[in-house]
Amino acid sequence: MGLLRGIELTLSYVVHALFRLVQLALALAVCGLYAVDIDRAIQAGMYIDGRWICALVITSLSAITALLYLIPCVSRLPMAFAWDATLFVLWMSLFALFGNVFIGVQTEGDRGAQRMKNAVWVDLANAILWLISSVGMLLYWRHNQQKRTSWTGRGKA
Questions:
Q1: d(CA 72, CA 65)
Q2: Averaged pLDDT, 82-96
Q3: Which residues constitute the signal peptide according to the record (predicted)?
């Protein structure tokens, strides 16, 4: 069943779309987890730590990218795997940054610290998803890069 000219609604596209929806949902979840602290700092008139701003930038970039990849033709862009790999590196740096701060913390009775500890593990889940995405996009790009016409095999398809 064709969606647009040249775009088929295949099982692989449905799986791709579901994968991107999971990436979008997790990026928005992390955005909400970090935004709570930023909102509290703004309400108290306090300084907003740059680490939290960095986290919001990374989550926003990931959410926008996941939304764009839901558009059928966008995932066919050449070298899209490089952007996914960049997002993987950003998520790993976010995991390292906040993991250093919150993983070893005792959180008994401190809901804020427990929330941030949970956010760190969701950061890792996001990093893994963007790694899988990057590898998948690389394989897709390599597979489609070397296609030849079926008539003579000399022309590129």
A1: 13
A2: 97
A3: none
Residue type at 139?
L
For residue 145, how many other CB atoms are within 10 A of its CB? 10
Helix (H, G, I), strand (E, B) or coil at 89: helix
Distance CA 128, CA 122 (A): 10
Query: What's the pLDDT at 112?
Result: 84
Q: Read out DSSP for 36-84? A: HHHHHHHHHTPPPPHHHHHHHHHHHHHHHHHHHHTSTTGGGSTTHHHHH
Residue 132 burial (CB count, 10 A) = 14
Taking every pair of C-alpha atoms in the chain, what is the biggest distance, in angstroms? 71
pTM: 0.83
